# Entry
Amino acid sequence: MAPPALPAREAALLVRARAIAGLRLDTLAARLSRGVPGDLRRAKGWIGELIETALGATAGPKPAPDFPELGVEVKTIPIGPDARPLESTHVCAVTLHDAGGPSWEGSLVRRKLARVLWVPIEANESLAPGSRRIGQAVLWSPTREQESQLRRDWEELMELVALGHADAIPGDLGVHLQVRPKAASGRSRAAATAPDGSRVATLPLGFYLRPSFTATILAASYAAPPV
# Structure
């Protein structure tokens, strides 16, 4: 089965996402003629890529939402038996371009989080990747209060990046949004600004949403009537 075409409307994307709810990942992979890894430690992006392919996403690695025509980003989120997120959610990489002056309104973080299709994935250490099931997807946009806090977090974090203190950002900084290293190995490097203004190589960093924040998103979405 070939990957589906890009959905023409947001409602069509949501219908498509809810049509795969309840499926095991290996069932979905078989429909798309994709292999299933035996261990996610060496295939960290496999679940997200599988879901995006099934939904017809087009952006790929570009700095844009997964569905740029619709302005919708897709985020898979592993959840435990209590339906709470088990880990932080990667938003996008931290780049020198972000530190160079763009406002919150023009930031990639804001574009990525303006409209998100959350796809919960059953996660349990005892479950093989293929046996995990897909949950009920929900569409979300930040409330005014949520965006206000995200903006404050982003501005505080980017100020430190711009001042050359990216390597010293504490993990507990940011109420909803945090900056963490993001690299396949400790040998990976990305360009950064040193405190004296020079360019240096440092560990790649990414913006992440805290599990405490995504838990409130899911709780509110499932408590509300379906869209």
